[in-house]
Amino acid sequence: MKLRQMLVLWMLLLSLATALVVAPALAQDDDGDGDLTEGIGDDAAPAPPSIGADVPLTYFGPAPSTVQKELIGPYQLVTAGTIDNDAATITLPLYEGRMASGEPAWYILIDTNDEANAAALGLNFSAKLTYADVGRAVRPATLGPDLLVTFERGTVDFSPEYSITPGEAPNYFPPAAFQPGAIGDADYTPLMKLTNAGGYIYNAPLVAYNVTADQLNAFCDAEPDKRIVHDKTVRICPRDGTVTLELTLGFSFARPVWYLSMDASVDLAAAMEEVTLAPGLADIALGGDDSFASAVERIFPVVNGPMGIENPQRQGFNSALAGEGGPLNTLGGIPTIATDYSPLWDLNPVVWTQEAIDAGYRARVFEEFFILGLVQEGHLTGLGGGAFGSVGIIVNCPVVFRFL
To answer: Taking the C-alpha atoms of 77, 78, 84 and 85 in order, what is their torsion angle to the nearest 10 degrees?
Structure first.
């Protein structure tokens, strides 16, 4: 058995053990003796990682455990910032840049494909960002003698008023109407490459544009005006050199994580995530997952998961649009768990079939290969009952903290 398959089998068995506690409807007691672990054999074999991808299994690499021994426990991934778990926020350094035409452009740094600088600056390392440098997906920038970065292209209009109107119950998704609160121009992307300083790529989303430090300093002790800053901004203060942003809760390999949602390649996703529309990201190829030259990793949002604000199994787009909380998305590999991390998540939504719901299988899902197994067995499908896989949307959601 290949090393990756052995790792996947171990992770699936771990997730199944957890599911037996939180989702007994998925388990069976064939002879009535109370043993819910009976019969775990061929039907529990892990689905191959190539399901839903556009490349064959032979293109996937070895198990992460062959590279680094994995650990269990809380771990802050982006150490450049300070996380407040109670408030669900992270406070990061705020950088001042400028456009080639002179307008101020305020940004943050979260990920890079420069491994040494990632460690030095407290950022996530993502080798996959190297493959993002196609079309408009990476904006060129230069570092000046004053240490200010000058962006050659890509601006954001933060003035639109964010809004989203749920669809009719019980199918709140898709929304009946929506408006992202920040619109990037045709060339905007959160990714930048310092062309005169190593040529490395950084995940550097804009959080404010064409406003002065004095204007932003008014929010050091006051609620920020969302018409001039990113909608996830809780506090911004050039005087202190910091910006505080809201975090989103999700899962990776059955572990809860905080991630920072900043941009999306299409308007619907930007509205659902309450982030900036970044059209430049649309030039990145999707569907490759962990194969050669792929810049992305997969995210698995559930459309019609269990609902109820007090329901411990609550999850999904319908639940989020009903005002019950976040969607609780499941992400693929993150730093310290896998070697294939990318902050650029390829949307692979799943829908519970009516047959699975009627059988009592619907529950919160929080592990990639468990989800792929449910797809393989026909309990989960793609949108509208169609084929599961990429829907051609990227969301820029760097993971900043792992709880377990």
So the answer is: -30
What digits encode the pLDDT tens for the residues 136-145? 999 999 999 9
Per-residue pLDDT tens digits for 5-27: 444 444 444 444 344 333 333 33
The C-alpha atoms of residue 274 and residue 261 are separated, in whole angstroms, by 8
How far apart are the two ends of the chain, measured CA to CA in Å? 28
Place of tokens 């998961």: 305
Secondary structure of residue 393 in the 3-state scheme: coil
* Closest among 279, 297, 284 to 345, alpha carbons compared: 297
Q: Which domain holds residue 370?
A: 3-402
Q: Please give the Cα distance from 160 to 43 (Å, whole number).
A: 50
pLDDT tens-digit profile of 336-352? 888 899 999 999 999 99
Contact 336, 71 (CB under 8 A): yes
What does the alpha-carbon distance between residue 394 and residue 161 come to, in Å, rounded to a whole number? Answer: 22
| Overall domain count for the chain | 1
Q: Percent of the chain at pLDDT above 70?
A: 86
Residue 146 tokens, joined: 């004053």
Structure tokens, 35? 């043993």
* Closest by CA position to 389, among listed 288, 252, 281, 268: 288
pLDDT of residue 404: 83
Cβ atoms 333, 252 nearer than 8 A: yes
Closest CA to 298 of 246, 265, 340, 257: 340
- Give the pair of three-digit tokens for residue 34: 């109370």
Cα 277 to its chain centre, rounded Å, is 15
CB-CB contact of 310 with 318 (8 Å):
no
